[in-house]
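Notes from the pairing session

We agreed to fold both candidates in a single pass and log them together. This is the raw record for the first candidate, unedited. Please don't reformat it; downstream parsing expects exactly this layout.

Candidate A
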Amino acid sequence: MFKKNVSLGIMEKWMIQVTSGLESGQNLIVEGHRDVEDGQAVKVVHTVTETGEYSF
C-alpha cells in the first residue's frame, strides 16, 4: 500500500464518492487508514466490485 490524495464528492452515511485520484482496479482503505505506512502489507477483508446497489 501507499498513501495517495484523492478528491471526494458525495458523502452519504458510510458511502463516499471518490471523484479523482483513484484509478480503476486500485483499492482504497476506508477504515484504519491512519495507522498504515507506505509499503506496509495489509489484509483486504472486504472488496466491492459491483457498485449497483452502492451507487448514489
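Candidate B (folded immediately after A)
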Amino acid sequence: MTFLTALKEKVLCLDGAMGSQVQNRLKSYSGPPDFLNLTNPETIVAIHREYVEAGADVVLTNTFNTNPFKKGMTDEKIREIIPKAIENARASGASYVLYDMTTLGKLLGVDLSFEEAYRGYLNILEKLDPTQIDGLFIETMADLNEAKVAVLAAKATHPELPIVVSMTYDSQHKTLTGSDPTACAMVLEGLGVQGIGVNCSTGPENMVSIVKDYRSSTSLPIFVKPNAGMPKLVDGENLYDVTPQAFAEEMKSLLDLNIAAVGGCCGTTPAHIRMLMELVKKVSPNREMPEKVDTYGTHFTSSVLEDQEKLTAVTVELPTSERVLSTPGNFQRTMNKTIRKTISGEEVVYFDLDGTEQSVLEKLTTVFNEQPPILKKAVVLQCKEPEILESFLRYLSGKPIVLTNQEDGDTKELQRLQSRYAALWLGENRILLK
C-alpha cells in the first residue's frame, strides 16, 4: 500500500522527536544530529526503531539540519548524509519513510533572494534518490513564502513524490511573517501539495483552533505534530514536562477533528508515541471532506469567492520610477501606501500586465526576486503572455486571481502555470473594474 493510499485508509501515526532523544543518549555530543547518520548510525537507527516499536507507521529521516546554509554542511557532506540518513530510517522497519526538510535558516527577502533559496533547496533535493523514500515532509516552516519556494523546488526535481508541508505558528496563530492558517492552507493546496500540517509551536491543546481553521479551508489531509508542552530551562537544558499520558489525553480533541496523521515534535519520546498509538487504534477515519470552494487572498489570510459572486477590483498603476524599481523594499512600501489610499473593504487590486511596458516588467521581476512582495490586498492579474504571468505568480505572495483569455495565448503554457502555481483563474465577467 502506498503512502497516499494509506492516508485514505487509516489515521497514520508519525514518529516523535529526534534531537531531544539524541541529547538524552549522547550527553557530550553538541553538534547537529544529522552528522550522527555517518559517525554513530547505531544510535540513530535505535531511535527510529524504538518509534516503530512504539507503533509509528511513518519515520522521518534524521536530516532536519541538512542544508547548505548550516555550519559544516558542505556539498560533499550533504551528499554523504542524505543516502545514509535514508538507509538508517529504512533500517527501522517503518512502513513509510519521509525525507525530512525544514527552513534554510535564512530570512527570505533579507538574507536570501527567492532564487537563492530555490537553489538552496535544489541543492538538497537533487541528491535524493526518490525510489528510496515514500515522500517529502517539509516541516517547521515559519514563512509561507519560503514554504512556497521549497514546494516549487520539490515539484521541479521529484514531481512523483508526495509532499507534506507543516507550518509553525505563534501564540496568536500566526507564522513568523504574519500568515494565518487559512492563508497557508489556501496557498499550499494551490501549489498542489498532498498534505498540510502544524508542528512544534506548542502542545496539543493550543493546536485545536489551528486545525479547525485548516479544516474549514482545505480538503487536504491534515498532519499534527505537537511538542510535549513548552520547554523549560532547567540546569542549562530544555526540558519538556508533558507526560506521555497527559500528551495522549490532550490529543483526543485533535483526533476528533478528522485529521490524517498524528505524531510528536520536540520533547516527545517513544513512550509518548506508544500512548498516542493506543488512541489512534480506536479512531475510525472519516474521509468526508468539505466541499471545495474558490479561494483567493493575501500572504496574511484567505477569502472565499461564492458562486456567481463578483469582485470589485480597483486599477492600480505599477510604479515606473527608478527610485521604486531600483530598491526591493521600495516597491512593497509604495504599493501598500497606494493600496491604503485607494482601496477599501472587500475590494481587490487590479494589475493590467498587458498594458505595462516590457522594460518595467523586467525590472519588477528583478525586484520581486530580491524581496517577494507582500501586499495588503488580494491581487487580480490581467495577462496574455505566459512568461510575464509566470514571473508574477512565482514571486507574488498569497494567491492572486488571474484573468486571461487562453485563446489569445499559449494554451499549453497557461495550463502548466495553472498546475504549478497557486492562483484562482476566472473569466472577466466575475470582476467589476473600478
